[in-house]
Amino acid sequence: MQIIESVAAMQQLSFATRRSGRTIAFVPTMGFLHDGHGSLLREGRRRGDLLVLSIFVNPTQFGVGEDFEAYPRDLARDRAVAEAAGVDVIFAPRAGEMYPAGYQTYVDVERLTLPLCGASRPGHFRGVTTVVSKLFNIVQPDVALFGSKDYQQLAVIRRMVADLNMPIEVVGMPIVREADGLALSSRNAYLSSSQRQAALCLSRSLRAAKELYGAGERNVATLRERVTAIVAAELSATVDYIEFRNGHSLEEVVVADDQTLLALAVKIGTTRLIDNCLLGEG
Ligand SMILES: Nc1ncnc2c1ncn2[C@@H]1O[C@H](COP(=O)(O)OP(=O)(O)OP(=O)(O)O)[C@@H](O)[C@H]1O
Ligand SMILES: CC(C)(CO)[C@@H](O)C(=O)[O-]
Ligand code: BAL
């Protein structure tokens, strides 16, 4: 496994790989790897000849007062996880090379970025689509893999790839959870053990909404009441949003169907966690 920090060296390897007729699978991450990343890497290993993992804590997608500095980092551990997953190249650029002095170009997806995390984190998706475009230009993947834990991010990237005619297959992967339901997330590392217990209110409330939906409830107001009650029962939980949206357009819905996305963002103490499900799935 190679570790490449230079943009030029990564680009050279990508072009050489494609010229030789080999395919490239790409998993972009911010590091501090867990088995959610592991599932993307395993699928990437299956789909490409060269498997590239990027590790870059992207400053442009963090707002003022967010956790850019505190974001967990452990390159030594990530190396071991990547090696075990069969990664060929870790691309870990420095921020100064991705955003040198004079940098002023951004990619913006319009409507899909307005609600949900886009509303709570102004500028977040502009940072994501910008860095992902740059990474795509550097790594030149045939296929790129993203997790549906970040459901809106996946939808926004699919839109960007279609709108900008990027010749890349975007693959969305299911959410990997702990045995008790908690969605794996690098930010879970911020939680104390009591907060870790409280954080189960996210997955528990998704399950309850799915059960209610499965029993025939279609009224979003009723479904929302159930979810809100479960989250509100946790003293350390503060709701950022509880939203029922069309799983494709992300427009708000009042009558649920199988394609309705239930998306949550909840702060446990100061740690903001997200989770989601489609009401008709599973
Ligand atoms: N539990 C999970 N299951 C499947 N994919 C996941 C999971 N968690 C993260 N991913 C995916 O891994 C990729 C990299 O995400 P990232 O490095 O931000 O990890 P993260 O755990 O989501 O971190 P954060 O704490 O910032 O939410 C994204 O495509 C993301 O959707
Ligand atoms: C896609 C991504 C690597 C861009 O920085 C990030 O948003 C993430 O880890 O989901
Ligand atoms: N997992 C998406 C990256 C972020 O929260 O900034």
TrEMBL record:
Positions bound to (R)-pantoate: Q61, Q153
Predominant place of localization: cytoplasm
Signal peptide: none
Keywords: ATP-binding, Cytoplasm, Ligase, Nucleotide-binding, Pantothenate biosynthesis
UniProt-listed Enzyme Commission number(s): 6.3.2.1
SUPFAM superfamilies tied to this protein: Nucleotidylyl transferase (SSF52374)
Record field: catalytic activity: (R)-pantoate + beta-alanine + ATP = (R)-pantothenate + AMP + diphosphate + H(+)
Residue numbers binding ATP: 30-37, 147-150, 176, 184-187
Active-site residues, record numbering mapped to chain: H37 (proton donor)
Family, as annotated: Belongs to the pantothenate synthetase family.
Self-association state and partner proteins as the record states: Homodimer.
HAMAP family attached to this UniProt entry: PanC (MF_00158)
Role, per record: Catalyzes the condensation of pantoate with beta-alanine in an ATP-dependent reaction via a pantoyl-adenylate intermediate.
Protein name: Pantothenate synthetase
Species of the source: Geomobilimonas luticola
